[in-house]
Amino acid sequence: MNRPNVLLICVEHWSGRRIGALGHPMLTPTLDQLIGNGVAYTNAYATTPSCIPARRELMTGTFSRTHGDRVFNETLPMPSTPTMAQTFRDSG
């Protein structure tokens, strides 16, 4: 079985709808090429409105109420749950 290539693009304060391949007039040739050769998820939902807790949720698959990171200023250790990055690394 071939391992898939995964490219996760996370940005702040930018609408994913502003991509040429998704119908916007903005010129985004590199993103257009990535979408043309892969998958673009056009709907995303966050259970936390703050950036840092939301990214931690994405990387761990846990809710902020589980890992305790609910605000910007806190520096908390990562939960014992393996992160997406660790899982990818361990899978080669």
Structure summarized in a few sentences:
By secondary structure, the protein is an all-alpha fold. The chain has four helices and no strands. The protein is flat and about 40 Å long.
From the spread of the alpha carbons, the general shape counts as flat
Query: How is the biggest beta sheet arranged?
Result: none
Cα end-to-end separation: 13 Å
Provide the succession of SSEs.
Answer: HHHH
Give the beta-strand count: 0
Share of helical residues: 25-40%
Domain Sulfatase N-terminal: 4-92
InterPro entries: Alkaline_phosphatase_core_sf, GAG_Ulvan_Degrading_Sulfatases, Sulfatase_N
Biased composition (Polar residues): 81-92
Protein name: Sulfatase N-terminal domain-containing protein
Plain-language structure description:
This is Sulfatase N-terminal domain-containing protein. Residues 70-92 are annotated as: Disordered. Residues 4-92 form the Sulfatase N-terminal domain. The protein has helices spanning 29-36, 51-60, 64-67, 84-90. The protein folds into 2 domains: 1-44, no CATH class; 46-92, no CATH class. The two termini are 13 Å apart. The model has no long low-confidence stretch (mean pLDDT 81). The chain is built from 4 helices and no strands. With 92 residues, the chain is mainly α. The radius of gyration is 16 Å and the shape is flat.
